[in-house]
Amino acid sequence: MTTLRDPLGWVLLILSALAFLYLLGPLLVIVGASFSDTGYLAFPPQGLSLRWYRSALADSRYLGGFLVSVRLAGTVALISLVVGTAAAVALTRFHFPGRALLEALFLSPLVLPGLVLAVALALFFSTRPLAPPGTTRLVVSHLLVGVPLVLRVMLPVLRRVDRSIEEAAQNLGASPLQAFLLVTLPAVRPGLLAAAALAFIFSFDEVEMALFLGSAREAPLTVVLYGAAQMAFDPTVAAVSSLLILLALLVMLLQQVFRR
Predict the structure, then answer these.
(1) DSSP label at 46?
(2) Residue ranges of the domains in the chain?
(3) Residue 3 pLDDT > 60, yes or no?
(4) What is residue 259's predicted lDDT score, i.e. its pLDDT?
(5) DSSP secondary structure string for all residues of 231-244
(6) pLDDT digits over 10-31, tens only?
(7) Tell me, what's the pLDDT at 232?
(8) Residue 114 predicted with pLDDT over 70
(9) Residue 159 and which of 36, 129, 135, 255 are 20 to 30 A apart at CA?
(10) Running DSSP on this structure, what letter comes out for residue 183?
(11) Is residue 147 pLDDT above 80, yes or no?
(12) What does CATH list as the number for 69-219?
């Protein structure tokens, strides 16, 4: 263990501080610019004002986009969790030919760039309108990435579960389904929460699919922010972004409290 008495400890401390500054610097700039009193983005802020926060909260576009994004992300997270966990159970509990190939096929959407996947889905839905434009089409599209995200988390989690505990529950009279629901699922609950959080965050922050496949009547918050930045990049965009940063910070704090 290195300490601050050791020169290497000071070097590691400085490198860690620079890394955190590099990661958090853009966020600090956005938060600082949101308090500016000018009609344009400025950092350091020229004067302190909350008028851009009042403007953002009074704008129905941002509130409507936020509600659409929450509903979309919640639906994608729930369906992805169920489908991805079921697929992970099948890949870890059953041995059949081509299992490794099937696992690689399930995870393949994660390596595709978001723009490529969005263009491909737009071409697909233009010739085969299987889902109407809007939230329904976005849910179907986001599942192509949400399910692999859940699968990527749940595969190693289920492989670490001790099967003897589940077998012991069956020896005591539980059915295979009861043993899985009452023994295995509580054991993998942290993995389930992490997988659902990943799917939710992806769907909430996704931009490319929302631009190509979304509807103007049900635009997610990312599309609303993108349009606002294209038309008038005023500090209102920074205020909405700061509110999202605050929301993410509160969720992280609540997660820490829940874990303790």
Answers:
(1) S
(2) 26-58+220-260, 69-219
(3) no
(4) 65
(5) H---HHHHHHHHHH
(6) 778 888 888 888 888 878 877 8
(7) 67
(8) yes
(9) 255
(10) I
(11) yes
(12) 1.10.3720.10
> Which residues lie closer than 8 Å to 36 by C-beta, 6 or more apart?
42, 43, 45, 46, 47, 49, 52, 235, 238
Q: Which two tokens stand for residue 188?
A: 């993998």
CA neighbours closer than 13 Å in the CB half-sphere of residue 190? 10
pLDDT higher than threshold 80 for residue 49: no
Residue count of the chain, please give it: 260
CA distance 77 to 150: 9
Q: Quickly list DSSP for 203-228.
A: HHH--HHHHHH--STT--HHHHHHHH
Residue 18 CB partners (closer than 8 Å, separation 6+): none
CA distance 226 to 245: 17
pLDDT at position 79 is 93
Decide if 220 contacts 214 (C-beta within 8 A): yes
Say which residue the tokens 């696992």 belong to: 103
**43 φ, ψ (degrees, to nearest 5):** -140, 130
- Candidates 212, 5, 7, 25; CA nearest to 123 is 212
Are 206 and 139 spatial neighbours (Cβ–Cβ below 8 Å)? Answer: no
Residue 67 token pair: 């509600």
- Determine the straight-line distance between the first and last CA of the chain, rounded to whole angstroms: 27
Q: 68-101 in b/e burial notation, b at 16+ Cβ within 10 A?
A: bbeebbebbbebbbeebbebbbebbeeeeeeeee
What sign has the CA pseudo-torsion 152, 155, 157, 160?
negative
